[in-house]
């Protein structure tokens, strides 16, 4: 049994799911100059009509932690805060275990199922290093 990239979810009213490395562990393992993080704050469509609870856009967050490689940014961690986090993380955990790993260009070139929470991961395109506002404003 290989225990690398084991998906984990905390089943609270606002679920948190992750697989792989945290940003801090990735930096300690690969060096900060070799790490890129893609991230976004989003608002699940399922919560817009009708509103199920009072929420702020910043309540829901996604990030991928990547190692910069010649072949593209290889995903070494995914962190998802929002509805159905466990369901979303499971599929990405499988993808991260494939030979050669999962790369951001594979994620972003995939058409997301609309409207789902998992779709937000394939729409990630803002890096922390860019300094751009990571708030998703629409479909």
Folded structure, characterized:
The protein is of the alpha+beta class. The model has no long low-confidence stretch (mean pLDDT 88). The chain is built from 4 helices and 5 strands. β4 (61-69) and β5 (72-81) form a beta hairpin. It has helices at 23-30, 85-96, 104-108, 119-122, and strands at 8-10, 16-20, 35-41, 61-69, 72-81. It has a 5-stranded antiparallel sheet with strand order 1-2-5-4-3, with helices on both faces.
Topology:
Layout: E1 8-10, E2 16-20, H1 23-30, E3 35-41, E4 61-69, E5 72-81, H2 85-96, H3 104-108, H4 119-122
Antiparallel strand pairs: 1-2, 2-5, 3-4, 4-5
Overall pLDDT metric: 88
Low-pLDDT regions: none
Please count the helical segments: 4
Give the tally of β-strands: 5
Summarize the structure.
This protein has 139 residues and is an alpha+beta fold. The protein has helices at residues 23-30, 85-96, 104-108, 119-122, and strands at 8-10, 16-20, 35-41, 61-69, 72-81.
Features:
five-stranded antiparallel beta sheet, 139 residues, alpha+beta, globular, 5 strands
